[in-house]
From TrEMBL:
Enzyme class: ligase
Oxidoreductase in keyword set: no
Chief location: cytoplasm
GO biological process: phenylalanyl-tRNA aminoacylation
Protein name: Phenylalanine--tRNA ligase beta subunit
Subunit details: Tetramer of two alpha and two beta subunits.
Catalytic activity, as annotated: tRNA(Phe) + L-phenylalanine + ATP = L-phenylalanyl-tRNA(Phe) + AMP + diphosphate + H(+)
Residues at which Mg(2+) binds: D324, D330, E333, D334
Organism: Methanosarcina mazei
Family matches, as HAMAP family: Phe_tRNA_synth_beta2
Start and end residues of each B5 domain: 270-346
Gene: pheT
Localization, UniProt: Cytoplasm
Nucleotide-binding listed as a keyword: yes
The protein's Enzyme Commission number: 6.1.1.20
Length: 545
């Protein structure tokens, strides 16, 4: 989960109260305080609340929660002066574009850092490491509208951010740190995305790097924001950024986005979504009956617009920056937060039962103890994945035992995983900024032939990772689990030939271990040797081992 640094000077100014009150109450809106320092506090917010990834967003929420300013925040948007045209050839590369202008922002070094941190946290939280969403923030004074979003040849040259000399787009992908890190996002395309002004100056090479001409400094007052991506999460990210800047005093201005066919889209769209919520829905989840007036009060504390239509129904207006409100259940959760979990009455169940540990829990305890004892950290990735991650990136053939999501909301989550290892490699890819070695494991669910199973998998990454290391880990794990086993030569294409082995127990194949082959390491954009293993423990659950 993202950890956000909130400086007291900014926080108190934007919230209108003292830091002690904020620190005391902020955990109740869904956050954990990581550390309290003399000048700032680090707070870990849940990943479903990207609108809180900045001091501006956190202050807006706290003003409501502390009854300093309740109800739906309203932002005036001025008529457009800037337009941007979208070319036909970009639609096959990165088709979604959202833009806005924010004027009159007064920046300090800390507020610039807050904006840049918000940008990067949204890249992670909404953007899947810039794949689905990437954000560019530009100083308007050095560029001239109208702008153009188009595709150009890889040989096109400009001066990228933090550099002083021109580089071709190909060179940027090879030599610039950001280019090398995110080059996989545009690999395979004959042309690359770019945003140009009327004089052919470069604003951005999305989703890789901005041009140095539009760098944001303390002298910047007027901003152009571009958000590109693969889906409608682009518009949510745009709304979060512009409303955060508006909280700092900026004036939002529409931008006219002109499609290849001439249709126009005026953004940002900050119109709230309207929902109807009944007192019965609230009671069914919270467990106590709240009058409609109390429901309205608590929704307004959580910065929703709300009014009672009758004694049982509330009309709710959801802010455009709230990406987490997918169902009325989410509204009820916020009502519970506003009301205070400590104020919800405890009721003793009418029926008493005796519980016992589930067989999976009984298996999980020794597995976790062994792996932690071997120096591995437990992680809990999603069980939803994609064919690309589950099969293609692992150099494995697609199988017929896959369970697909009927209506996936993202190309990254189209199926239930059949194996755990790919998810662990994704986590390594997201944590390349951490020091090595990194050793992680998971005891979790996989689904094959519509049947849920339990696997344990682990990976280790560092320059000296080798077959002997992972063999020793597997041997120690099997001995601690008191399982007699044998190994045979494996043909799993995810591992290096000659440095891979299958594990058998009582003549049945339990799993595989070895050194991941370079192609797999490359497809996950990892830069060091990786070893790992995965074992199917389903047949062992419930047995007295």
């Amino acid at each position: 989960m993202p950890v956000i640094t909130l400086h007291y000077e900014d926080l108190e100014k934007l919230t209108g109260t003292d830091k002690e009150t904020i620190i005391k109450r902020v955990p109740m809106i869904g956050a954990d305080i990581e550390r309290v320092e003399d000048e700032y506090v680090d707070i870990e917010f849940f990943p479903d609340r990207p609108d809180l990834y900045s001091v501006e967003g956190a202050a807006r929420a706290m003003r409501g929660f502390l009854d300093l300013e309740t109800g739906l925040p309203e932002y005036e948007i001025k008529p457009y002066k800037v337009s941007i045209s979208v070319s036909e050839d970009i639609l096959k590369i990165r088709p979604f574009l959202g833009c806005a202008v924010v004027r009159g922002v007064k920046f300090t070094s800390s507020s610039i850092k807050s904006l840049m941190d918000l940008q990067e946290d949204l890249h992670w939280g909404l953007g899947r490491n810039r794949k689905k969403v990437s954000i560019g923030v530009h100083d308007l004074k050095n560029v001239k509208p109208p702008f153009r979003y188009m595709a150009v040849d890889p040989g096109f040259e400009f001066v990228p951010l933090d550099y002083t000399e021109k580089m071709s787009m190909t060179e940027i992908l090879e030599k610039h740190p950001k280019g090398a890190r995110f080059s996989h996002l545009v690999s395979g395309f004959e042309k690359y995305p770019i945003i140009l002004d009327a004089d052919d100056n470069v604003l951005s090479f999305p989703p890789i790097i901005n041009g140095t001409l539009t760098s944001v400094t303390e002298e910047t007052t007027d901003l152009f924001i571009d958000v590109t991506g693969l889906g409608e999460a682009v518009y949510t990210a745009l709304n979060i950024v512009v409303t955060a800047l508006a909280e700092r005093g900026g004036e939002i201005e529409f931008v006219r986005v002109i499609s290849p066919g001439g249709e126009e889209l005026v953004l940002p769209d900050l119109e709230p979504e309207e929902r109807l919520l009944t007192t019965g829905e609230v009671k069914s989840l919270i467990g106590m009956e709240l009058p409609v007036e109390e429901i309205v009060k608590q929704l307004e504390r959580m910065r929703f617009g709300a009014c009672a239509l009758d004694k049982e129904t509330v009309e709710v207006r959801v802010p455009a920056y709230r990406a987490d409100i997918l169902h009325n259940y989410d509204l009820v959760e916020d009502i519970a937060k506003g009301y205070g979990y400590e104020n919800i009455k405890v009721k003793i169940p009418e029926t008493y039962t005796a519980g016992k540990s589930h067989p999976i829990s009984l298996m999980r305890a020794p597995v976790n103890e062994i792996m932690v004892g071997l120096g591995y950290y437990e992680v809990m990735p999603f069980t939803l994945t994609s064919e690309k991650v589950n099969f293609e990136n692992m150099c494995r053939e697609k199988t017929d035992d896959v369970t697909y999501v009927l209506h996936p909301i993202s190309e990254d989550q189209t199926m239930l995983r059949t194996t755990v290892l790919p998810n662990l490699l994704e986590i390594l890819a997201l944590n390349q900024h951490r020091e090595l070695p990194q050793k992680i494991f998971e005891f979790g669910e996989v689904v094959s032939n519509e049947t849920t199973g339990q696997h344990v998998a682990a990976v280790s990454i560092h320059p000296q990772a080798n077959f002997t290391e992972v063999y020793e880990v597997v041997d120690a794990f099997m001995r601690e689990m008191m399982l007699s086993y044998e190994v045979k030569e494996s043909k799993d294409p995810a591992f290096l030939e000659g440095r891979r082995a299958d594990v058998y127990v009582n003549g049945k194949k339990l799993g595989v271990f070895g050194e991941l082959q370079p192609e797999v390491i490359s497809k996950f954009s990892l830069g060091y040797a990786v070893v790992g293993f995965e074992l199917d423990l389903n047949d062992l659950i419930g047995k007295n081992i």
